[in-house]
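Anyone else keep sequences and structure tokens together like this?

Example one:
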Amino acid sequence: MIKQAATSIGNHYDLNASSALSNINTGGLFFQDAPQNVVEPYTVFSYAGSTTDDNMGGIRDKQELAQFTFNTFSKADDGGAEALNIAEQLQLVFDEAALTLTDGFTSIRFQRTGTSAAFFIDDVWQITNLYTFWIDW
């Protein structure tokens, strides 16, 4: 399920990222970690865990509620503002997105459940969007 969800998120980004997002998130979007030579700003999304809920009347009577974080990194002088701008553009692409899954999984909802404040750690600005991906299986 994690592989299918990650593929779905990456495909959705590739198909729906606006020119505004592509122009500011120049390093790109990566699953789990970014390559060593990537230049900021960039975003890494990661699987953060999940729970399973019984779903009376669902397609298969179970739903997986998978948590994903989207961490945006910037080293610019105004990196906090840059990371926040990217996080907001990501929200336009992903908030309540209709994601497509394969292998018998069905996307129900992709809901943003939080956004962190911008943090400055080791000369890098970082901001996080947290999403819950509701998957019927």
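And example two:
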Amino acid sequence: MTAVISSSLIRSAASAWELNPITEKLVQSLQPSIAARGNHLINDIAEDICVDANRELLATVLAGLIGTVNHQVSGSNIRLTAKQYSDVILVHLKDYNNTGNLVVDKKIQVLAEKMGGFVGVSSQRNNLTTIAFCFPNLPVEAGVPEENTLVAA
């Protein structure tokens, strides 16, 4: 029996990078804007979450989502978290003091979709609003054409 394994499904540890340092840099760079609005943002993403996705595209989406919350609320506590479920990363941006509905810019949604991801917003009781961003945790090389396949016997 012969198995065909696509090289795009084989991960190398060298291609993965930690999500927390990237989000920490984003939070630090946006801190003046966050403080000016009276908001407080906590980066609560675990240090052991590693990502294989396009770093620049992911950073752009995350910066856009943080900016969305920051520009639409004031005097709020915002918490950034992430969890890994097999080959999917789920990022939550929770606003604990929102009295209205958050609206995510269509450009950010399009960039998320370009990564194979999805952005959704949900509002719950007690002024809690959550932006959820999930995306496949696949290597950047995942889009490589099928001619780069390995045959294992």
